[in-house]
Amino acid sequence: MTMTWEWRGTVRNEEINELHAEGFDHVPAADDWTERLSRLSLGWVTARDDEGLVGFVNVIWDGHVHAFIEDTLVAHRARRQGIGKRLVAVAEEQSRAAGCEWLHVDFDDHLKSFYFDACGFRPTSAGLMQLR
């Protein structure tokens, strides 16, 4: 199976909406990802195999030195193959190349091992306020 990785690769709203729904276990939406990505993102990483989009991560930023990992997604059929780790690695490389000094991520507890052990993030103090 051939796997390709692309920074700021072409994506269709439908394929990201499907992958997002699968990854976060919700009904597929009709979100305009292409507009959102062009407006808010430093970039994004796509992973594709012979069947299509199997991985995606969005990198938003403050326009200066802080980048943020959002929506790390790997299709169920392609998990446990290092795709998520490679998505984050490409995001790290490209954020560094853009001049960012910090790459942030927040996540649910069950993903600690992935982000800390596999990807190299370290624990920090942070805050979160639920708005709705």
Give your account of this protein's structure.
The protein is α+β, with helices and mostly antiparallel strands and 132 residues long. The chain has a single domain (4-118), classed as Aminopeptidase (3-Layer(aba) Sandwich), CATH 3.40.630. It is built from four helices and five strands. The protein has helices at 13-24, 33-40, 83-97, 112-118, and strands at residues 4-7, 41-49, 52-61, 66-74, 102-104. It has a five-stranded mixed β-sheet with strand order 1-2-3-4-5. The longest helix has 15 residues, at 83-97. The model has no long low-confidence stretch (mean pLDDT 95).
List its traits:
single chain, 132 residues, alpha+beta, Aminopeptidase, 5-stranded mixed β-sheet, 27% strand, globular
Instruction: Indicate the CATH topology.
Output: Aminopeptidase
> Which overall shape is indicated by the principal axes computed on the Cα atoms?
globular
Helices and strands, in N-to-C order?
Answer: EHHEEEHEH
Through-space gap between termini: 43 Å
Which helices and strands occur, and which strands form pairs?
Elements: E1 4-7, H1 13-24, H2 33-40, E2 41-49, E3 52-61, E4 66-74, H3 83-97, E5 102-104, H4 112-118
Parallel strand pairs: 4-5
Antiparallel strand pairs: 1-2, 2-3, 3-4
State the gist of this model:
It is built from four helices and five strands. The protein has helices at 13-24, 33-40, 83-97, 112-118; strands at residues 4-7, 41-49, 52-61, 66-74, 102-104.
